[in-house]
Amino acid sequence: MAYPRHMLLVEDNQSDVELLLAVLEESAFGNTVDVARDGAEALDYLFRREQFATREEELPCVVLLDIKMPKVSGFEVLQQVRANTRLRWLPVVMLTSSRADRDIIESYELGANAYVVKPVDFDEYVETVKDIGAFWGRRNEPPLGRGGAGE
Question: Whole-prediction pTM value?
Answer without folding.
Answer: 0.89
